[in-house]
Design goal:
Strand order of the largest sheet: 4-3-2-5-6-1-7-8-9-10
CATH architecture: 3-Layer(aba) Sandwich
CATH superfamily: P-loop containing nucleotide triphosphate hydrolases
Helix content: 25-40%
Number of strands: 10
């Protein structure tokens, strides 16, 4: 198993994290904290000596600033494929180059456990056809899973028709949904494990909180 980097989430999954050689998709609206879940996942890998790759459509400086805001030290950083600030550029207009460069980086580190985190799934879905992206991510997931690696990807809820997200979700071994529940003036951030390889269905919702000191997942009292 591969730690999520969030102890309370590791406990929720009941087996100390995400399955080995798996692909995890986190779905939620902008600003809810999806990125923080990826940051803690990467941080855990860096501490354990895993090879960590972050593929992002944002500049490296923006991601590092966001990491600090999520309570993560940037003394150790992953290797980058980014829109700016990295030797290898992330060009959303060239999906093939993103896939090629990510695979090359993973293959160079075949002797190590690998963690790949990315936020490019939704932008690429907007710029390309669903059929082409289904084939693209299917091949990428398959390639990564042939090695000792875990892929962590983010998807923006509300940015795609429901059938698009449903189609993409079936490619992933684990799907986590993050949403905001509004009741009157109260807004509660909720977390649900829609599916996870090796686990029975977990139908309940959990509260989560992201702050400058970390991330916490707790039971949601109905």
């Amino acid at each position: 198993m591969v730690s999520t980097g969030v102890p309370s989430l590791d406990n929720l999954l009941g087996s100390d994290g995400y399955p080995d050689r798996s692909a995890i998709l986190v779905v939620g609206p902008p600003g809810i904290g999806k990125e923080a879940l990826g940051y803690w996942f990467v941080r855990s890998g860096l501490i354990q000596g895993d090879y960590c790759l972050y593929v992002t459509h944002r500049p490296v400086t923006d991601v590092l600033r966001d990491m600090k805001g999520s309570g993560i030290s940037t003394e150790r950083v992953p290797e980058w494929i980014a829109s700016a600030g990295s030797p290898v550029k992330c060009d959303l207009r060239d999906a093939t180059s993103i896939s090629f460069n990510a695979k090359e980086a993973v293959h160079r580190n075949v002797a190590r456990r690998v963690r790949v985190a990315t936020d490019v799934l939704s932008p690429l879905l907007v710029l390309n056809t669903l059929e082409s992206m289904y084939n693209y991510w299917s091949q990428l997931v398959s390639d990564f899973k042939q090695q000792d690696s875990v892929l962590f990807a983010l998807a923006e809820d509300g940015m795609h028709p429901p059938n698009v997200l449903t189609t993409m979700e079936q490619l992933f071994d684990g799907v986590i949904e993050m949403r905001l529940y509004e009741e009157g003036l109260a807004i509660t951030p909720l977390f649900r494990v829609k599916k996870m390889l090796g686990l029975p269905p977990l139908h309940g919702y959990f509260r989560f909180a992201v702050s400058s000191t970390g991330m916490e997942v707790t039971p949601h009292a109905k």
